[in-house]
Amino acid sequence: MLDRLGRWARDLSGGAAALAYPPLCLGCEGRLPEPSDALCATCLRGLPRADAETVAGLLADGPVEQAVALWAFDPGGTVRRLQHALKYGGRPTLGRGLGEVLGAAVRQAGIVADVVVPIPLSHVRQLERGYNQAAALADGVATALGVPSAPLLVRTRTTLAQARLSKSERRRNVDGAFALAPGADVASLRVLLVDDVLTTGATLAAAATPLAAGGAQVAVAALALAGA
Ligand SMILES: [Zn+2]
User: Fold this and answer.
1) Cα of 199 to ligand 1 centre, how many Å?
2) What is the reported pTM?
3) CB 47, CB 68: distance < 8 Å
4) For the chain, which domains are there?
5) Distance 110 CA to ligand 1 centre (A)
6) Which end of the chain is more exposed for a tag (fewer CB within 10 A), N or C?
7) What spacing in Å lies between the alpha carbon of 28 and ligand 1's midpoint?
8) CA of 41 to the centre of ligand 1 (A)
């Protein structure tokens, strides 16, 4: 009886794990050879690339010297599903895998970095989600570039979610919301800031400000470019 109960509990937990992490492609729902992947090779190749000029234009008048965003939100919604899975799916391995893909694009864009820095989440959001998707992405980018990833930034105050704010409200909302982590010395470092989505560029510009003030050269990389 105890034996059967044990087996039942094991089956149940195995089933729950399989439900939570179905190794299916987020694009075509085909089986994936690697459960840590998000997309099959065909869907990955088919995603629309973000327009480089639009990306550069968003960050042109701030402290950011180079910027790259990998994908544009597509009508099929695959990029949105990816973003959603990254944010709420509780799969840090997904972030690391996508980070490595982003890292290859960073290299292709000719961006050189000494250290990769994730945009910090507020403590409240990190507690809600259990992890910071930008940190998981940053780990993958750092692996692809062969440099360390380090949490050199902190939030100085809580901010509202940017999604429902206008462009000028977004800037005000995040202005001065980031500072160097205690003891962080970034003088003459080439820093690559990483976030999941680039919308107006307000968050990345605000996060780049204390880094640039500390003497760093700042570049940014985002997984996707969203229409503002
Ligand atoms: Zn697919």
Assistant:
1) 26
2) 0.85
3) no
4) 1-46 (no CATH), 47-225 (3.40.50.2020)
5) 29
6) N
7) 4
8) 7
